[in-house]
Amino acid sequence: MLSFNGYHIEPIQLQDAWSLCNFITANEDRLKRYFPKTLEQNLTPDLSKFFVEKKVKQFSLKEEFLFTIKEKASKKLVGLIYIKELDWNKKQGEFAYCIGYPFEEQGIMTKAISYLSDFAFSDLDIKTLQIIVHKDNIASVKVAKNCNFTWIKTLKNEYTPPGEASLNMELYELYKEIET
What we know:
The protein is α+β, with helices and mostly antiparallel strands. It has helices spanning 17-26, 28-31, 36-40, 45-60, 108-122, 138-146; strands at residues 2-4, 7-11, 65-71, 77-87, 92-99, 128-133, 150-159, 167-175. The protein has an 8-stranded mixed beta sheet with strand order 1-2-3-4-5-6-8-7, with helices on both faces. β7 and β8 (167-175) form a beta hairpin. GO terms for molecular function: acyltransferase activity, transferring groups other than amino-acyl groups. Residues 9-150 form the N-acetyltransferase domain.
């Protein structure tokens, strides 16, 4: 679908189940705080198969969009990007994303979010994209800022990680430019 710097972004596909399971288990420590549901649904190849089937269906129904980021050469899955919390009346959606340990701090996610923002605005007719992030997740805050998202406000007690107290989260938004 979209390609850049030796990587490509494409919608989740049925054949991604095995590589998704490998990606999730390899990054379990990283995912357990902010992606606990994705983690628990991908701990075995069978669970990943069901998860991917559900996500492919949601994609086709435009309920939620899950994209993979893969290395072109090896086809290795290196990251995931959701466009979720879709409100078609408001034409609004929210990004959630994660990248594997070996691929962090290389600008891959920034590039991918930038490309998918353009895709959401042009192909999905989304008008507002959101990123909701904890202030201590510096890498994710950098992605939001580097992709020209604007800090809007602090959302009090917005998210409760498993086994922790609720956290305040920061809301960033990006708006489709209106052509005049």
